[in-house]
């Protein structure tokens, strides 16, 4: 018992010395920092830190290999399916572009405008509206498109909330308005309408088709969807979303502008 008490006494003494040493070190550091703040180097200039790599010299330019100019990022299925989409235009009455509302003014594929919209009327659907402040951004975004691209056919959706049928009804009404005013030419013998849904990857194209199908027909999902891009890799079979008038949507893969 006496030996145990001696050990405890020694341990307590050691802890006390260690605490005093730590306190003295902290006080010295604080005093030195205060002195540096008042007079950094004695001549008014702040102290210079010793560089970790004193011999390092940064490059002024980054030279790419000669073969890099021939490389781009454009998955094979995108180029192929873009041609398929162009081929489908002769049977399509309307094009819907689905884009992420969080990047409403950027990221769109300009190829769509030259190769698709110049031939068929189109609607810009800004999806995921629940992720932005509609009160703050809705009017400026619509005004920007009216002023710069003369684009007035803009609809806002949130495909995760199919209970909010008002937004989908607005889109359907806009679709039917454009479909009925479009000259069908060689498609006059057909009684149904066909709409193509396009956009860059992961903007909610398949989700929009499934939502319209659910809201209007009370049917389950017809298109595979996911939280990652590239779930749809080819132009799908058409999906019925309306009975009166009979209207079908074509799901397409996301296509980026080659770079």
From TrEMBL:
Query: SUPFAM superfamilies per the record?
Result: P-loop containing nucleoside triphosphate hydrolases
Q: Name one GO biological process term.
A: mitochondrial translation
Q: Which GO terms describe its molecular function?
A: GTP binding; GTPase activity
Record keywords, A-Z: GTP-binding, Nucleotide-binding
Q: Which domain of life is it from?
A: Eukaryota
- List each copy of the G domain by range: 194-256
GO CC terms: mitochondrion
User: One short Pfam family name for this protein?
Assistant: MMR_HSR1
Q: Does the keyword Glycosyltransferase apply?
A: no
Which InterPro entries does UniProt cross-reference here? Answer: GTP-bd, P-loop_NTPase
From the Swiss-Prot or TrEMBL record, give the protein name.
G domain-containing protein
| Species this protein is from | Globodera rostochiensis (Golden nematode worm)
């Amino acid at each position: 018992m006496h030996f145990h008490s001696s050990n405890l006494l020694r341990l307590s003494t050691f802890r006390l010395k260690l605490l005093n040493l730590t306190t003295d070190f902290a006080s010295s550091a604080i005093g030195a920092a205060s002195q540096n703040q008042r007079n950094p180097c004695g001549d008014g200039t702040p102290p210079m830190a010793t560089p970790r790599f004193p011999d390092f010299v940064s490059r002024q330019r980054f030279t790419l290999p000669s073969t890099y100019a021939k490389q781009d990022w454009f998955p094979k299925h995108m180029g192929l399916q873009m041609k398929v989409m162009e081929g489908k235009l002769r049977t399509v009455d309307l094009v819907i572009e689905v884009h992420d509302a969080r990047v409403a003014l950027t990221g769109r594929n300009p190829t769509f405008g030259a190769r698709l919209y110049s031939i068929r009327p189109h609607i810009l659907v800004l999806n995921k509206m629940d992720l932005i402040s509609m009160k703050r951004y809705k009017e400026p975004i619509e005004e920007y498109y009216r002023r710069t691209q003369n684009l007035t056919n803009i609809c806002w959706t949130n495909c995760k909330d199919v209970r909010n049928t008002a937004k989908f009804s607005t889109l359907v009404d806009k679709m039917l308005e454009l479909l009925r005013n479009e000259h069908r030419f060689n498609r006059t013998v057909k009684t149904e309408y066909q709409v193509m849904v396009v956009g860059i990857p992961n903007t909610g194209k398949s989700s929009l088709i499934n939502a319209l199908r659910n809201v209007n027909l009370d049917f389950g999902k017809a298109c595979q969807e996911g939280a990652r891009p590239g779930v749809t890799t080819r132009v799908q079979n058409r999906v019925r979303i309306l009975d009166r008038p009979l209207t079908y949507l074509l799901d397409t893969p996301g296509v980026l502008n080659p770079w």
